[in-house]
């Protein structure tokens, strides 16, 4: 009885979560005329991929995909590397005043991006990196690494001391301890961080909107914004673009979801 | 992941990122042009043609066109124009809070000289040129020229001809006829007016009603701060009270407070409501997508919300200003203006040959009548930054019955007065 209750509530939850997605798919394959006469919930008479194709060509979606992959991929890798270095020093190295350093990181992480945007624009413009992917990669590496450092420091704070001792007795220096002992053992956690950093950066809208002004540098979420007109919206093409926009994130998630679950369970066992 | 693979991946990504850096062409043979109109819109069609003509008449010059999102331009323009990546020419929103603000910040080129030399001022009628000129406070209507509009827009009455015929009604040319028609629809159990209370349509209707009792001086005082504004004068009170009356009589549904503009348009295009009072920006879409019934439009009686469309502006930091001026010249030529008109837009300087399509002809004829009668009254939310949200929420309260017409006017008045103190600062 109780098991069934759980099952049914899971089904209801799944349906609730899938309905918006279903509506997006429904409207993405409609013609604008069908949308205007039948409204958003009517069933289309056939599958029309015109909206999807027109959107792809209009914004050169392949280029945007590549940009997003480059930016999110670089940020995910770099932020994990930076987080590991920081957390090694703070969590295992026991730097003096590490609590305050962590608080500082956390505060930096809670600042709204709207407050950061003008200073970031000014700095980027001064050093000649305005409207380059490099600027966005550096900024998001810092932002994501701040969170990563916070999270990873507490994980490494509970790292088994015996292992570190053993490594030192075997003659490993600090670098070797990090690369040979700490990183391999915390790999599941690092995998989770990597996936999260990638998806978070992928979904970022505001800073890329401001910092990547040329179309050739734009990311996927910014490209979706092209369709939002001043007074008009094209509901079918917007749905088509939303569909194109979420597919890469879903694919990425499916590829890495094993790393994700492994990371989560690894944490749970500890 | 093996470490070597990881290092290689980072190197590869950085390499791609590096070479994608700023290589924006700055030589004198490119015109960097931005706008945010969709490729199928009247402006999109006309400007694509203008780009073609420009490239034909300027051999060796390449047009580097990028379609932008409205929001991106709105949010980032001051920053972009202040950097070396500024385009040579871009479309920008007209009005005090947008183009006016940029002009005051010194980010736009004063093009008065070119306007006089090329005679653009003669092509733009009164009321249209208002939004192209800004004074040192950034207030529109006088001072230097900072932009050129190619098209115009105005609010009118769209109606469902089939449903009007069924009730034996003629085109609602005056406010009395419109009211009588709406009364008849209510008696037949149909809500006559499609209204979107969650966005611009509702407060535009209130303004439209006030405008029936207004004149140019009233509009100038409200929009250009040329004199005292009293929100409890004859016009405003008439607007708010009539709007409340329309609600009482059932002309406007009480449920419309949460309706978006898009859904208002859909309700009209699906034949649920026979009348929609909204802007010419719907025209092309209604024309293309309504197949199930006959529809028509009549101009709003008296003054009406409307203005020039968005402007072509030339940033202060533009590298090729002469090319930008040449491009504006082409967009103002009869050929491009006719193209814009035939694609369903409202042209500001079309040729003398009328449009072949009867609907396009009527749209433009109605506009010339408004322009010649000096009847364009801009939009109610223009005079103060953030006024839009205030008006939406006040009129929503009126629709749901949380506030009476006079309370709404007091709310509008308070916000307006607060802003007035900071105009030009």
Account of the 3D structure:
The complex is a heterodimer of chains A (270) and B (425). Chain A is an all-alpha fold and 270 residues long. Chain A has one domain (49-269): MetI-like fold (Orthogonal Bundle), CATH 1.10.3720. In chain A, 79% of the residues lie in helices and 0% in strands. Chain A contains 13 helices and no strands. Chain A has helices at 2-28, 32-38, 50-59, 61-92, 98-110, 113-126, 133-157, 161-169, 174-185, 187-203, 206-211, 220-224, 235-269. Chain A is globular, with a radius of gyration of 23 Å. The mean pLDDT of chain A is 86. Chain B is α+β, with helices and mostly antiparallel strands. Chain B has two domains: 30-150 and 309-351, 3-Layer(aba) Sandwich (D-Maltodextrin-Binding Protein, domain 2), CATH 3.40.190; 154-306 and 381-420, Periplasmic binding protein-like II (D-Maltodextrin-Binding Protein, domain 2, 3-Layer(aba) Sandwich), CATH 3.40.190.10. Chain B is 47% helix and 12% strand. Chain B has helices at residues 3-19, 42-57, 70-81, 96-104, 112-118, 120-123, 161-166, 175-187, 200-211, 216-224, 234-248, 261-269, 283-289, 321-331, 334-342, 358-372, 387-400, 405-420, and strands at residues 30-35, 62-67, 89-92, 133-134, 144-145, 148-149, 151-160, 193-194, 275-279, 295-299, 306-308, 311-313, 346-347. In chain B, helix 9 (200-211) crosses helix 17 and helix 11 (234-248) packs across helix 18 (405-420). Chain B is globular and about 65 Å long. The termini of chain B are far apart. Classes of the chains: A mainly alpha (270), B alpha+beta (425). At the A-B interface, helix 2, helix 4, helix 6 and helix 7 of A face helix 1, helix 3, helix 12 and helix 13 of B.
């Amino acid at each position: 009885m109780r098991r069934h209750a759980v099952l049914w509530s899971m089904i209801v939850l799944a349906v609730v979560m899938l309905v918006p997605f279903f509506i997006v798919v429904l409207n993405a394959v409609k013609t604008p005329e069908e949308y205007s006469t039948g409204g958003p919930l009517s069933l289309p008479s056939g599958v029309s991929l015109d909206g999807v194709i027109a959107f792809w060509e209009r914004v050169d979606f392949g280029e945007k995909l590549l940009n997003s992959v480059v930016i999110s991929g670089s940020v995910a890798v770099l932020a994990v590397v930076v987080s590991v270095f920081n957390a090694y020093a703070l969590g295992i190295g026991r730097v003096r005043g590490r609590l305050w350093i962590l608080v500082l990181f956390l505060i930096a992480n809670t600042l709204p991006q709207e407050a950061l945007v003008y200073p970031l624009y000014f700095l980027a413009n001064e050093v000649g990196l305005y409207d380059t992917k490099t600027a966005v990669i550096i900024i998001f590496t810092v932002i994501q690494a701040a969170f990563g450092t916070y999270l990873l420091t507490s994980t490494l704070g509970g790292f088994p001391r015996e292992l570190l001792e053993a490594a030192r007795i075997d003659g490993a220096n600090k670098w070797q301890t990090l690369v040979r002992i700490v990183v391999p053992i915390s790999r599941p956690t690092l995998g989770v961080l990597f996936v999260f950093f990638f998806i978070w950066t992928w979904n970022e809208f505001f800073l890329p909107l401001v910092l990547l002004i040329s179309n050739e540098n734009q990311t996927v979420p910014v490209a979706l914004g092209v369709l939002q007109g001043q007074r008009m919206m094209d509901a079918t093409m917007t749905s088509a673009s939303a569909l194109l926009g979420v597919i890469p994130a879903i694919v990425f998630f499916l590829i890495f979801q094993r790393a994700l679950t492994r990371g989560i369970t690894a944490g749970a066992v500890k | 992941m093996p470490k070597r693979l990881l290092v290689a991946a980072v190197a590869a990504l950085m390499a791609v990122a590096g070479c994608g850096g700023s290589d924006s062409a700055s030589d004198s043979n490119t015109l960097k042009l931005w706008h945010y109109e969709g490729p199928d819109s009247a402006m999109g069609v006309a400007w694509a043609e203008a780009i073609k003509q420009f490239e034909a008449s300027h051999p060796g010059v390449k047009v580097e066109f990028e379609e932008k999102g409205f929001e991106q331009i709105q949010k980032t323009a001051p920053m972009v124009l202040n950097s070396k990546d500024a385009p040579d020419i871009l479309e920008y929103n007209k009005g005090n809070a947008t183009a006016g603000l940029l002009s005051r910040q010194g980010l736009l080129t004063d093009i008065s000289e070119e306007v006089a030399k090329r005679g653009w001022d003669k092509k733009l009628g009164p009321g249209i040129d208002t939004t192209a000129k800004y004074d040192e406070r950034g207030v529109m209507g006088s001072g230097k020229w900072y932009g050129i509009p190619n098209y115009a827009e105005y609010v009118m009455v769209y109606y469902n001809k089939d449903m009007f015929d069924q009730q034996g009604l003629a085109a609602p040319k005056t406010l009395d006829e419109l009211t009588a028609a709406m009364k008849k629809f209510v008696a037949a159990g149909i809500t006559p007016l499609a209204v979107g209370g969650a966005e611009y349509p509702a407060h535009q209707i209130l303004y439209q009603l006030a405008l029936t009792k207004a004149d140019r001086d009233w509009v100038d005082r409200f929009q250009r701060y040329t004199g005292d504004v009293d929100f409890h004068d004859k016009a405003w009170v008439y607007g708010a009270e009539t709007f409340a009356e329309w609600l009482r009589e059932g002309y406007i549904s009480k449920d419309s407070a949460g309706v978006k503009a898009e859904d208002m348009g859909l309700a009209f295009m699906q034949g649920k409501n026979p009348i929609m009072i909204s802007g010419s920006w719907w025209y092309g879409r209604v024309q293309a997508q309504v197949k199930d019934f006959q529809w028509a439009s009549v101009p709003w009686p008296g003054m009406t919300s409307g203005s020039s469309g968005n402007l072509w502006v030339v940033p202060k930091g533009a590298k090729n200003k002469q090319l930008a001026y040449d491009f504006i010249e082409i967009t103002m030529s009869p050929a491009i203006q006719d193209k814009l008109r035939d694609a369903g837009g409202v042209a500001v300087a079309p040729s003398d040959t009328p449009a072949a399509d009867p609907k396009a002809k009527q749209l433009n004829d109605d506009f010339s009548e408004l322009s010649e009668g000096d009847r364009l009254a801009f939009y109610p939310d223009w005079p103060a930054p953030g006024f839009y949200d205030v008006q939406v929420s006040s009129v929503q309260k009126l629709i749901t019955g949380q506030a009476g017409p006079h309370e709404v006017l007091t709310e509008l008045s308070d916000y307006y007065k607060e802003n007035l103190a900071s105009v030009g600062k």
